[in-house]
Structures are given as C-alpha cells and as structure tokens.
C-alpha cells in the first residue's frame, strides 16, 4: 500500500487504488464516503433516495444498495419510515473510537519501525508536506483527507493488511466524531503532529513514537466539544457537482 508515491484516495476504503475504477455503485459509494469524511455531508444530514438518485442519474434501487453498504460500515443510519441519514456518533462511541485507534495504532508501531524503509519515509514526507500545504491554503477538505491518509499509510508500512483495513474504517468514523464534536478550526489532526511523528519514525525510536502517538490521540479527544445540532437535507447537486456520468443502473 505504501510505495514511492501515495494515492490518498486509498484511505477511503483501505484497499488498493483499483477499487476506485469499479462499477457505478462503487463510484457513488466512494463519492458519498468522501463527502462524509471531508465534512461536506455532516452527521445528521438526511439522505433521501429520490434526491440522491436524481443527483447521480441512477435508480432508487441502486442508491438503496449504496446506502446499505454505508450503513454496514456505520457511516449511515437507516431508520424505518424515516429513511437514511449520515450517522451521528454518541459521546461514548466518540470516545471509544479514539480509544480503540490509540490501542491499535500504538501497539503496531514497533512493527512499523521494523518494516520501515527509505521509500516509506520519502512517501510519508510527501504526504506530510501535502497536509501542511492544505492547512496553509485553509483547504479543510484536503486537510481532513490527508490527515486520515497519514494514519492509514503509516500503519500500512507494517504489512498487516487486516489491521490497516481496521484503522482505515476507524478513520472514517473518527471523521464523523470530529464533524459532530470538533472545534470549528479542527480539520483532521494538528499539522505539526504528523511531522513530529515522522521525525521519530525516521529515528527508529519506537518507544518515543508510541508515546507521541498516544498523546496525539489524547489531544484530539481533549479538544472535542460535546454539543450537536441536527442538519437539514443537503444540496446534493452542489456537493456532487463534480461527479461523473449519470448512467442508469
């Protein structure tokens, strides 16, 4: 998953980039996941089948399949007679998501250090540079995407695909937590933290790396604000204006 270059799109599902050139369902699924993770579709946003079908130029049956997939990874909630909406994690779930990430990611760091090669460091440095540029440009969507990509790609260095996929899914749920409870300025992780982590990885200091990563997650949770207000049905045509062809399923 890590090479001399990083495809940050891979973070959305945790698999190979080829995932993004599959069928129409996959294209819609990835568009919705990306919009949710980048906070263009906020927690509580309604996802009516008819409006989405019109936006993507597909049948309601196709949209229903995609919403079921999103519900399976806990990004969408489907309620009888109320339809689907972007999931809104509760406070306990929010804390548990980051606690689980802290345990998994910190525990895997010795393996990351053991397997880390120069090409990994170069690729991670490029990713950090892109994230820092996104912060300078005040590009919140890119900052969130690149922040998640940093964590997934860091764990991928160890070569444990099962754990990498678990972290990838947890980064999606983390984005929901930050969308609900994060401060207005909270766009992914603090930009300097990842540079610091990369420096410790370069030094092959697994103890300090794990300690810094643990504090990194503690800081994120400490900055969460547990208040939330519901959202109305979004303007899908505007959000997905860049979507591809509108072919029926």
Automatic annotation (TrEMBL):
<dbReference type="Pfam" id="PF00392">
    <property type="entry name" value="GntR"/>
</dbReference>
<dbReference type="Pfam" id="PF07729">
    <property type="entry name" value="FCD"/>
</dbReference>
<feature type="domain" description="HTH gntR-type">
    <location>
        <begin position="22"/>
        <end position="89"/>
    </location>
</feature>
<keyword id="KW-0238">DNA-binding</keyword>
<keyword id="KW-0804">Transcription</keyword>
<dbReference type="InterPro" id="IPR008920">
    <property type="entry name" value="TF_FadR/GntR_C"/>
</dbReference>
<dbReference type="InterPro" id="IPR036390">
    <property type="entry name" value="WH_DNA-bd_sf"/>
</dbReference>
<protein>
    <submittedName>
        <fullName>GntR family transcriptional regulator</fullName>
    </submittedName>
</protein>
<dbReference type="InterPro" id="IPR036388">
    <property type="entry name" value="WH-like_DNA-bd_sf"/>
</dbReference>
<dbReference type="InterPro" id="IPR000524">
    <property type="entry name" value="Tscrpt_reg_HTH_GntR"/>
</dbReference>
<keyword id="KW-0805">Transcription regulation</keyword>
<dbReference type="InterPro" id="IPR011711">
    <property type="entry name" value="GntR_C"/>
</dbReference>
